[in-house]
């Protein structure tokens, strides 16, 4: 059954080194933040966004990069997100680099 033409199973996203895979991880990161206001509030405060503006901002690659930068910048948040997604924490840095963010010396 096809849900939509652009649907990619999560198992494929886990292995996808492309920009679309990095964007998918960032969207998962946003969903993770949004699932708990105590996680979301610091991101909103730093970004200057209001909750009602998130959907519109999510289409901007810079916003998705900011989501991953926020997660990567807090070790406990990074580890919780990685565990939630059953991913290696290093995948966040890889996705961040793919979206044009993060220091050049990240693995």
Helices and strands in order:
Layout: H1 10-15, H2 19-34, H3 37-47, H4 54-57, H5 61-72, H6 75-85, H7 90-98
Category by helix and strand content: mainly alpha
Spans of at least 5 consecutive residues whose pLDDT stays below 50 are 1-13
Largest sheet: none
Quaternary arrangement of the chains shown?
single chain
Instruction: Quote the distance from N terminus to C terminus.
Output: 38 Å
Provide the helix percentage. 55-70%
Judging from the principal axes of the Cα atoms, what is the shape?
globular
H/E order of the elements? HHHHHHH
Number of strands: 0
Percent of residues in beta strands?
under 5%
In angstroms, what is the radius of gyration? 13 Å
- Overall average residue pLDDT: 81
What count of helical segments does DSSP give?
7
Summarize the structure in words.
With 107 residues, the chain is mainly alpha-helical. The protein has a domain at 36-102. The chain has helices at residues 10-15, 19-34, 37-47, 54-57, 61-72, 75-85, 90-98. The protein is built from 7 helices and no strands.
